[in-house]
Design goal:
Elements lengths: L3 E18 L4 E14 L4 E6 L10 H16 L4 H10 L4 H14 L9 E3 L2 E3 L7 H10 L4 E5 L5 H14 L5 E5 L6 H14 L6 E2 L7 H10 L4 E3 L6 H9 L5 E4 L1 H4 L2 H13 L3 E4 L6 H14 L9 H4 L6 E3 L2 E3 L1
Parallel strand pairs: 5-6, 6-7, 7-8, 8-9, 9-10, 10-11
Antiparallel strand pairs: 1-2, 2-3, 4-13, 12-13
């Protein structure tokens, strides 16, 4: 079996076509961290990550320090399966683990795949209702039919008006999803759910309306909702997933490599969720092409029939990945 011989780390900038705004953050440009490892055959394998301090609590400097020092001692000279376990059991931030684990999975043939496509939604960021027609027209022209609408803690009537306008502006048969990114409490969520029901809007799912660590609030929301409820920021680890399942707090889960710490754990979590009857969707942060490709490869493995949340490279001004008719092609 192959061993890790050496590693290297670099960065590059990624600029977005427009500002990506959620209830947690806004970003127009970011630094992608590229981690590479060389195996005994002399082949280099790539993993990528980014800082997402508002979500994962990490920082660019922390990730760089871990990749340039701690990781070397954890994996150099080790057989790949042993290196994977070392990273999984370490105290590294999940973003660091993800970059290393993606590269390690590449060595054993479980990393990025090629020659397939996967369906994805596209995000509509937090914006004013006046800006919506141009934003929606851009996405419709690009061929998307599934739209993830980012929501803030705004008056319920304003949100409903935005959703109704988006429904009017999108082609017949399109789908709308809502992602509140933890911006609501239980009371506001209940108000929004009632308003959606009264309006006749058809919503695929409501994602993470309540604070991440308040699992009980999410369970209360699911108990009253006629719309499927998705956990995102609430579900980082296998322990989180187990507790959410026990509380009956979600219908669906959004798994991301930077939260889970890479492909190895995310794959295990996907299998656990599916066995419990939870719908498994794969998402991403604003990442680089390599980490997004790894996420897309996992999506095609665990739930190829679903429409996932893999539009990060569509947002980039420059990308080697292709989006066509609502699908990401690798």
């Amino acid at each position: 079996m192959s061993e890790v011989v050496s590693t290297r780390v670099s960065t590059y900038s990624r600029e977005l076509r427009e500002r990506f705004v959620t209830a947690l953050r806004g970003v127009s440009e970011y630094q992608v961290i590229k981690f590479e490892l060389c195996d005994e055959s002399g082949t280099w394998h790539v993993g990528e990550t980014v800082e997402t301090p508002k979500i994962t609590g990490d920082s660019h400097s922390q990730i760089m320090a871990e990749l340039e020092s701690d990781v070397i001692g954890l994996i150099t000279g080790k057989e790949i399966s042993e290196a994977i376990r070392s990273i999984e059991e370490s105290n590294l931030t999940g973003s660091t683990k993800a970059a290393v684990d993606i590269a390690l999975n590449s060595v054993i043939g479980k990393g990025v795949r090629q020659g397939f496509s996967i369906a994805t939604d596209v995000t509509i960021p937090i914006t004013s209702i006046e800006n919506l027609p141009a934003l929606v027209a851009d996405r419709v022209a690009a061929g998307f039919t599934y739209f993830k609408v980012k929501a803030n803690n705004e008056p319920t009537a304003d949100l409903i008006a935005k959703l109704q306008l988006i429904e009017e502006l999108t082609p017949s048969g399109s789908h709308i999803r809502i992602d509140a990114n933890q911006a609501w409490d239980f009371g506001h969520t209940a108000e929004v759910l009632a308003a959606i029901s009264d309006s006749g809007l058809v919503i695929d799912y409501l994602e993470q309306p309540t604070p991440a660590r308040d699992f009980a609030a999410l369970a209360k929301v699911k108990a009253i909702s006629l719309i499927p409820i998705m956990a995102d920021e609430s579900c980082f680890t296998p322990a989180d997933l187990t507790e959410l399942i026990a509380l009956n707090a979600m219908d669906l889960v959004n798994l991301k490599l930077l939260k889970a710490g890479g492909l190895t754990i995310a794959r295990e979590m996907a299998n656990t969720a599916a066995a419990a009857g939870i719908g498994v969707y794969i998402g991403s942060m604003m990442e680089g092409d390599q980490s997004l490709s790894a996420a897309a490869s996992l999506a095609s493995e665990v739930a190829p029939e679903l429409v996932h949340d893999l539009d990060a490279s569509w947002w980039a001004k420059e990308s080697d990945l292709r989006y066509e008719s609502g699908r990401l092609y690798l």
